[in-house]
Design brief:
about 10% helix
Length: about 150
């Protein structure tokens, strides 16, 4: 739902109950412009994608997701967090497992990554999360910068 706007006649409590009952991540007043399914079962490989026209001019989108292709390591908490880097203008995506997060150095279910952004000054990917301080990824996009 657009910030500061509500569906006509619907109370916030009603909308929250509806979202919980239908397991909806969001409610909007308008239909989506497009829908797109992105594969998350292949990591560390460039995957060609046909993006909708509305996205083709975008250089990069950073999307946090989960991937069943991430195999847990010996110290892993069995997380499968990945950073999906989409390049609509070049028609491809690539998933980068978040080794720093997945290897068990965090308390899964208590801590999680919530957002990432590419810093235009340094070109580094920065992020933060719930009970996780701000972080910067290294050149691999898999680990924290030291």
């Amino acid at each position: 739902m657009p910030q500061g706007r509500r569906l006509p006649g619907a109370a916030t409590d009603e909308l929250c109950a509806l979202m919980r009952a239908r397991k909806l991540p969001l409610i909007t007043q308008r239909a989506p412009l497009f829908e797109l399914t992105l594969l998350t079962v292949i990591i560390d490989e460039q995957i060609e994608v046909q993006f909708p026209d509305e996205l083709k001019a975008k250089q990069e989108l950073l999307i946090l997701c989960y991937s069943s292709a991430i195999k847990p390591g010996p110290q892993s908490g069995h997380a499968n967090q990945a950073l999906l880097v989409a390049n609509p203008s070049e028609r491809h995506i690539r998933l980068y497992p978040q080794d720093w997060f997945n290897d068990g150095r965090v308390d899964l279910g208590y801590q999680w990554v919530t957002r990432v952004v590419r810093d235009p000054r340094t070109n580094r990917v920065r992020g933060d999360g719930i009970r996780i301080g701000a972080f910067v990824l290294d050149d691999t996009l898999r680990n924290l910068q030291q």
